[in-house]
Amino acid sequence: MLYYLFTWLNEHMHIPGAGLFQYISFRTAMAVIVSLIITTVFGSRLIRLLHRKQVGETVRDLGLEGEKQKQGTPTMGGLIIIAGILIPTLLFAKLDNIYVIIMIITTLWMGAIGFLDDYIKVFRKNKEGLAGRFKVIGQIGLGIFIAVTMYFHPSILVREQVTNPSYSVPVSVVINPSTGEKTYVEDVKSSKTNIPFYKNNEFDYAKSLSFLGISGTWITFGMTLLVIVFIVTAVSNGANITDGIDGLATGTSAIMGITLAILAYVSGNVIFSDYLNIMYIPNSGELVIFAGAFIGACTGFLWYNAYPAQVFMGDTGSLTIGGIIAAFAILIRKELLIPILCGVFLIENLSVIMQVSYFKYTKKKFGEGRRIFLMSPLHHHYQKKGYHESKIVTRFVIVSIMLAILTIVTLKIR
Q: Residue 183 pairs with which residues in a beta bridge?
């Protein structure tokens, strides 16, 4: 909203400094600052309110050190994160931008699912919360919404080079300043995405089944839909599983948010996308403002969530964070980088899958279930081995930083 106000003031009143709101970098910085203020200053008030309402965490006895001290710690703190994301976005982003609209809907959608789960746990005294199948249905629903919007919305385009321009769509001419060579480009609907470690750095869903002789518009849409639904479900559940010890989910998510902000900036900038030889996505640069708010919200929440935690985010926060990271990566067409960027979430997910599968297999074969890890998810395994929560979180964050750097480097490694 402030973007439109200061744009009007700059055009009609010529107020000094009002033109700063035209710059994505300035609005991103403001989004980070406002988000930090909301989560740190107003976060404490929400925590006191949760205390008064007795919205406390019910901790299951898992035999872990220090877990009994967490009994009664306020939960549903994800509301702080959601506020820290949405308010700066509404203030500083272009609200008519389709990418921003999708991210706002994603935040509210996943936040509603997580809030319902926490509400059932806290107020209905049901430790199981929302049934798993309903969570999955919600995640699939979001994936379908994103896939349909990306595939059919006329404003979601990518810029591609054309050798024989038809001029049926707007065609731009790019002149190489060194050689004077002209290149024709046009903004078109595309099913392409970036793929790491590949020479041309692009993968086309339309050609994914071409080796079987299968092609067509609905085949392409079907493949895109399956991939997007899988990614949204996997990443949101990964974030949910990772949120098991103080500061782990928020710390690693903030690193992922910074990486996504960088990727969104270069993908939405003509010069940088050309230099890195990655697809240019018109109007996607506005996502950097949303990413700034996300980074500020996760970092500010750590003020109260770092060990010893004064508040837990609950599913309200963890499902929202996971959904945001997945949707953001999909919109900037970097979803195939998620196994690297979200490596911590992936490992946590895999540790649970391996543990449960191996236990069932050995119970069926030997009559007694056996385990690979002392406990899953993986962070609980290290707790069982005697590592302190702070040390586990610090090391996971370091791993997340390494994976973030590798994710950015993949733009040039082919």
A: 174
- Distance (Å, whole) CA 252 – CA 166: 47
Residues 191 and 205: beta-carbon distance below 8 Å:
yes
The amino acid at 246: D
How many Cβ atoms sit within 10 Å of the Cβ of residue 207? Answer: 13
With CA atoms as reference, report the closest residue to 233 among 336, 332, 141, 298: 141
Report which of 374, 344, 369 is spatially closest to residue 358, judged by C-alpha positions.
369
* R_g of the chain, CA atoms, integer Å: 23
pTM over 0.90: yes
pLDDT at residue number 62: 63
Quote the CA–CA distance of 92 and 290 in Å, as a whole number.
9
Residue spans of alpha helices (H) in 153-278: 217-242, 248-267, 270-276
Q: Is 174 helix (H, G, I), strand (E, B) or coil?
A: strand
Termini Cα distance of the chain? 41
Say if residue 99's pLDDT is above 80: yes
Are the C-beta atoms of 324 and 276 separated by less than 8 Å? no
User: What φ, ψ does residue 178 adopt, rounded to 5°?
Assistant: -80, -45
Helix (H) or strand (E) holding 74: none
- DSSP label at 188? E
Helix (H) or strand (E) holding 186, with range, is: strand 182-188
The Cα 239–Cα 234 span in angstroms is 9
User: What tokens appear for 111 in the block?
Assistant: 């936040």
Closest CA to 402 of 267, 259, 273, 306: 259
Mean pLDDT along residues 295-316: 93
Task: Give mean pLDDT, residues 381-404.
Answer: 95
Q: Which residues lie across from 158 on neighbouring strands?
A: 188
Residue 236 contacts residue 322 (beta carbons within 8 Å): yes
Taking CA atoms, 284 is separated from 40, 102, 166, 333, in Å, by: 29, 12, 25, 10
Residue 373 DSSP symbol: S
Identify the H or E element spanning 125. Answer: none
Kindly tell me if the per-residue pLDDT of 266 is higher than 90. yes
Say how many C-beta atoms besides its own lie within 10 A of residue 361's C-beta: 12
